[in-house]
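Mods, move this if it's the wrong board.
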Amino acid sequence: MSHWPYPKVLAHRGGGTLAPENTLGAIRLGAHMGFKGVEFDVMLAGDGTPVLIHDQTLKRTTGTRGEVAHTAYADLVRLDAGSWRGPRWRGERWRGERIPRFEDAARLCRERGLWANVEIKPAHGFERRTGEAVARMAAELWRGAELPPVLSSFSPVALAAARVAAPQLPRGLLLGRIAPHWREMLRDLECIALHGNHRALSRRMVDAAHEAGFAVLAWTVNDRRTARRLRGWGVDCLVTDRLDRIAPDFAS
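Not the wrong board. Structure tokens:
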């Protein structure tokens, strides 16, 4: 059977669709709305600084040209990563939100008592380096924490590097489609959980994962009917963009 001691509903990219993703403002909003856990993405800037961002390019969230992996953090921090989301939400002002460093997001989480699912999001060609850097920093930033973060990734290379760099931190493998050899993949990486696209999951799949000793996290679940079905199957954790529809206490 699985063991999932972490929050059962997570705010995707900090604040879901209600805030500019992967920003400190998004994390604060998730906390304000009562979420006890957040998910966010970490990639390396051009100078090796781990930063919160999802895309390899800067266009969608900052409106500028360039690639994260080839832009130093000193240049990234000058960009406005909030205006694209709109001017405000219930008094929150998004203009001027910056691309935060991983260490700043981690400290905010610890200050607010938030658990974190840290997705290692390497740029192409930086899988091993990103896995190592994120894992080492996470181990340091959450040193002594009762519930350390789970490190997740679509990249087996990044997760393998994270396992070597910080073997004490739990890991989850992200899968858009469930491969026939998913058990072997999770065991090879010594993962505690399967992080699956909710559309690829079934009751049988959830049961099989639990029988193999893995927890199951489902992403990205944005309607209550789907959330109820997944919870009925025994899914351990839901990740949502719709913080206004699926409350942090939904699973209970």
